[in-house]
Amino acid sequence: MQKTKIDQISPLEKWLKEKLQEIKKKTPNELEIDLSIFNIPNALQIIADSLDNWNQLYTLNISLPKNEVTTSEVENLVKSLQKYCCVSNLSLVFNCFQLNEDIMLSIGQAICSSQNIQSFNLALRNKQLDSQKITKFLEGMEVCTNLTQFTLNLSCNQFDQEGALKLADIFTLMPNLIQFKLLLTGCQIGSEGVSQLGKKIAECHNLQSFSLGLINNNINYDGASKFLNVLSKLSRLNSLNLNLTANKNLRYDCLMNIIYKLQRIVKFTSTNRQPYFLD
Q1: In whole numbers, what is the pLDDT of the chain averaged over residues?
Q2: Distance between CA atoms of 225 and 221, rounded to whole angstroms?
Q3: Which of 58, 200, 208, 223 has the highest count of CB atoms within 10 angstroms of its CB?
Q4: Pairwise CA distance, residues 271 & 260, whole Å
Q5: What is the pLDDT of residues 169-213, one digit of tens each?
Q6: Which residues pair with 30 in a beta bridge?
Q7: Superkingdom of this entry's organism (predicted)?
Q8: What is the rounded CA–CA span in Å between residue 26 and residue 118?
């Protein structure tokens, strides 16, 4: 006897569907689902399908760090996102190692289909992204002028210095950014890459809080120093978090000079505030 589609659904898939229905009843305009401790088959597809049943969404947070999702699932999610132009808070965290240029462009376009987005968190860690895919993503992000809070995790990708230069262009499209967190662990952007990042970030004149993770990026003192010098243009900056761990060309005395520069750049709002040097 052939099994029906319902019989083929795993207990975790069934639980997820019921959980989504429960969330919709409690918060009809907000969908926040964190599956950090679960590996549920077809999780992203189930979530994408459920979005078709929501009338209005203002907040959408999806966290699937342990779920290996497919390209088709990402495509379906993107199509669903484009239906909700009222989303103002968006967070996407998932694993997918097959993101091609078209998908990256679609993700950017889906994000910007909602011109009301003010807070955006995107984690594409270890997705084998190169400079061409980064460029496609940026093309889709061209109209995100209303963003005030932005977190972007591109750690362990392969876009190196060229990708960093293209990534830097995104900051000129976001003049209203107030809080920005950028994680680039192991991307090997180098000293020139971080210097170019600094120049573009310095154009975000409203920036008040900035966090940058540059673990293992082959950055020397000259590159780090140039980066900090251009940040001195940010007159409203009162919180600066910088992680330069595992950059072999930075000696202890260089790090001390960098910390001194941090103390001079950041305009602290109270006397007990100190620059926070990330572990």
Answers
A1: 83
A2: 6
A3: 223
A4: 16
A5: 777 778 889 999 999 999 989 999 999 899 989 888 999 999 999
A6: 59
A7: Eukaryota
A8: 23
Judge whether residue 59 has pLDDT over 70: yes
Residue type, 133: K
Share of the chain above pLDDT 70, in %: 90
**CATH code at 99-277:** 3.80.10.10
Which whole-number Å values give the CA distances from 267 to 209, 237, 239, in the listed order?
Answer: 11, 6, 8
Is residue 28 scored above 60 in pLDDT?
yes
pLDDT interval class at 267 (50, 70, 90): low
Q: Which of 95, 47, 38 is nearest to 71 (CA)?
A: 95
- Exposed / middle / buried, residue 58 (Cβ in 10 Å: 0-12, 13-18, 19+): middle
Smallest CA-to-CA distance from 126 within 66, 190, 57 is with 66
Least confident of 54-63, 87-96, 253-262: 253-262
Q: Which residue type sits at 8?
A: Q
Sequence spans of domains, the chain: 99-277
Q: Comparing C-alpha atoms, which of 171, 179, 103 is closest to residue 140?
A: 103
Mean pLDDT for the stretch of residues 235-244: 89
Provide the residue count of the chain. Answer: 279
Going by C-alpha positions, the residue among 112, 185, 123 that lies closest to residue 152 is: 123
Among candidates 204, 197, 205, which has minimal Cα distance to 154?
A: 197
* H-run or E-run covering 153: strand 149-153
Output the six-digit token pair for 244: 């330069």
State both tokens at 86.
């009222």
The closest alpha carbon to 33, from 111, 89, 119, 91, belongs to 91
Do residues 238 and 266 lie in contact, with contact meaning Cβ atoms separated by under 8 Å? yes
> 101-113 and 71-81 helices cross at what angle (nearest 10)?
20
